[in-house]
Amino acid sequence: MLATISIVTVSYNSEKTIKHCIDSVRDQNVPVEHVLVDGASTDGTHKIIREYQNHFSKVIVEPDNGIYDAMNKGIDSTTGDIIGILNSDDYYATKNSLSKVVSVFCNDEIQACYGDLKYVDAQDEARVVRYWKAGEFDAQKFYWGWMPPHPTFFVRRSVYQKLGTFNLSLGSAADYEIMLRFLLKHRIGATYVPYTLVNMRTGGMSNASLANRLRANLMDRRSWEINQLKPYPWTLYLKPLRKLPQWFMSKV
């Protein structure tokens, strides 16, 4: 029997992009439980949400303590065997993105999977800005600055129940920390899905400025500390450097 899948979408003032995001979930060729968490948007987002009210299994509209707090609310509201997170300005690359994910979880030893990610220009989605080819899984690669692209990261709900959700004290590094916790500290079974699963529009908060990037680097270091893991001296310097080839890959 195929595992069931739940998708959590977090939104805030997303009227320009959320329809595309929702449609990409609706168009998937497997059944999906879609949970939406909106941080009390003040634009036209709510009007679009109401248009799709029969699509969602649950909609939460209330102020939150940031994007990861909203994600935690969504995770806690799911019922599927597998949980993925698709933010309101992202969308699935193809109609069979989630069927590829579900098929991986037919193996009971697999607790998580991830795939490739394309960053597309926010004004011209046909233009690929960066191509994040994640590569085969090996937990030791974290020591060399590697991490999977979080928008393509799918985890069994039982893992969240056992190992916890996002640590809100870590800001934009909360996704890095949760992957360190799951994949390196606790060594859950994970595998690579060698396809582009998600397209992400450019403009993420951790890369919005040099100050944000420096803050994120400090929080990356804290992510190792709270998990009682010790990176190599060069680990956290290599992490941003590993992004450089992604711009070249987009031109290939």
Molecular structure report:
Strands 1, 2, 3, 4, 5, 6, 7, 8 and 9 form a nine-stranded mixed sheet that branches. The longest helix is centred in the C-terminal third of the chain and has 17 residues, at 210-226. The radius of gyration is 17 Å and the shape is globular. Strand 2 (32-38), helix 2 and strand 3 (58-61) form a beta-alpha-beta unit. The protein has helices at 18-26, 45-51, 67-76, 97-104, 157-163, 174-185, 210-226, 235-241, 244-249; strands at residues 5-11, 32-38, 58-61, 82-85, 90-92, 112-120, 128-132, 154-156, 190-201. The chain has one domain (5-249): Spore Coat Polysaccharide Biosynthesis Protein SpsA, Chain A. Helix 6 runs parallel beside helix 7 (210-226). The chain is of the alpha/beta class. The chain starts with a strand and ends with a helix.
- Report the helical percentage: 25-40%
**Beta-strand share of residues:** 15-25%
**CATH secondary-structure class:** Alpha Beta
Helix-and-strand structural type: alpha/beta
Estimate nothing, just give the exact number of structural domains. 1
Principal-axes shape call: globular
CATH fold assignment: Spore Coat Polysaccharide Biosynthesis Protein SpsA, Chain A
Uncertain runs: none
Tally of helical runs: 9
Total beta strand runs: 9
Largest sheet: 9 strands, mixed
Taken in chain order, the helices and strands follow as EHEHEHEEHEEEHHEHHH
